[in-house]
Fold this sequence. Notes:
The protein has 396 residues and is an alpha/beta fold. Helix content is 45%, strand content 12%. Pyridoxal-5'-phosphate (PLP) binds at residues 34, 102-104, 130, 177, 182, 210, 212, 242, 244, 250, 255.
Amino acid sequence: xxxxxxxxxxxxxxxxxxxxxxxxxxxxxxxxxxxxxxxxxxxxxxxxxxxxxxxxxxxxxxxxxxxxxxxxxxxxxxxxxxxxxxxxxxxxxxxxxxxxxxxxxxxxxxxxxxxxxxxxxxxxxxxxxxxxxxxxxxxxxxxxxxxxxxxxxxxxxxxxxxxxxxxxxxxxxxxxxxxxxxxxxxxxxxxxxxxxxxxxxxxxxxxxxxxxxxxxxxxxxxxxxxxxxxxxxxxxxxxxxxxxxxxxxxxxxxxxxxxxxxxxxxxxxxxxxxxxxxxxxxxxxxxxxxxxxxxxxxxxxxxxxxxxxxxxxxxxxxxxxxxxxxxxxxxxxxxxxxxxxxxxxxxxxxxxxxxxxxxxxxxxxxxxxxxxxxxxxxxxxxxxxxxxxxxxxxxx
Length: 396
Ligand SMILES: Cc1ncc(COP(=O)(O)O)c(C=O)c1O
């Protein structure tokens, strides 16, 4: 039977990684990867995580199942991290947490929940969006549509977005990136979020907020502005949270599906269904990552250390954004690329065309995906002058 199966091409990013590895140019630069890198090009384990793991190793007394909602101690700390300490949503008992295998797992739970419990509702995602969104929702049986997000000049197209949201059929689901939009790096201002809230309320849409980069944009609380605004002002919201980036525990698969309902009673109904979709997918989530997060956030000292390390990562990215634009100044290109300093998160839609991306790879050994999306954490103070020179050359 297997002879009928067609091979599909591998992920474009994996091809890029292979090509980068083979390149012998000592000045080669990798801007394609999807993870944080420090100044030495490493993705280290955070010190707070190491401390938590040491405690876990010494104190763990069982490896029994943790249940479909995951560890209660994890939900206990993630809900206030996302919705805010003393959140009125939490006070009212309107929110439920279901631990999941990463943010991706939470998205799949959300997709299955919508498909089974809200049949007939389509989902709308930004154009462009994280490519996995395009696979996850149709895989669960949902019909996916796109709303515009960037214009022809490679800038945030907020008017286009808002206009499109106003046309979405009542009751459909709209996926919103809470912060650090992947792949573009363009985030909405607080004023723009308030306008989105109004449209979502008027059209009676169900927001699904993908929150994969909390703490990578402006700060842990600052980045949570949109999910908190929506949860506090609407009856129903779905949030998918990831601890992969902000705790640097990518491989531990740690995320959370947060369902916000109108009241505590409805929350319990919805929560019971979230357990079913989790059980039918994988039964129980992996425990280790959630245990790390819960260990850290239950300790004031480890929380302080973790916040410090997270701030370091965020500041590094935001400084590199500004320094990138500065490095382009001698070539008269600082205005053209000024948006890179204003974007947030790990990724930037640089505005480089596919042809320019090809030239950067072929002539300068600078690797990024053809959409012109660069991982800003791949910039360094050593490679910025080289990058600037190369970008100037392909702009000629
Ligand atoms: C927009 C977005 N959502 C969700 C995720 C999922 O993160 P993970 O499954 O690694 O926690 C990512 C990861 O790159 C992402 O960029």
